[in-house]
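Protein entry
_____________
===
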Amino acid sequence: MANVDVYDTAGSIVGTMELSDEIFAVPVNEHAVHAVVTQHLANLRQGTKSAKTRAEVSGGGKKPWRQKGTGRARQGSTRAPQWKGGGVVFAPKPRDFSFKLNKKLKRLALKSVLSSKVSENKLIALDSLPMGEIKTKEMKKTLDALKVAKALVALDAKDKDNNRRVVLSARNIPNVKTTGADSLNVYDILKYDFLVATKEALSVIQEVYA
């Protein structure tokens, strides 16, 4: 099984933790990761773009000039696409960009990025992350001690009051995001250089995503 060092908030190693090879030591499947990231970004798109076609632009009912004898090109409407104020050819319309993926594929992608963090030594396991009060300075001090800057901090759901203090303490720190261990997503794990998780959070990850 994969082993990772466990740190305290001062950045000192206080032990080790065994991780499940089923989740943290699988071969990286680039296709699965790419598909899941593409889906994540597509699902974020609002799809509210819109423009009018020649059928929707007002006016243009009268033929601008007679068909023949003027020496000019024949025209049927001043709202044709080639005219100023005319409609748009193949105008964009509101649409839903989201699509679905197989659950097994999404699970494989998540295991792939978690395994990648372990192999690159970018998974930081914390013995605990106690936060007595909402204090951004203390949270920043802990991250500096761990030598991480751009980090995703995963929390377990047991101590909700402490989690709330951690979330509020971290929200003003640039390039730091907090999330629940049971709601990780591939995009965020890739976006942030380090994944910081308490031992309890890692246990939750191994239970939920096994």
Observations:
- The chain has a mean pLDDT of 93.
- Residues 65 and 200 are 78 Å apart (CA to CA).
- The first helix runs from residue 21 to 24.
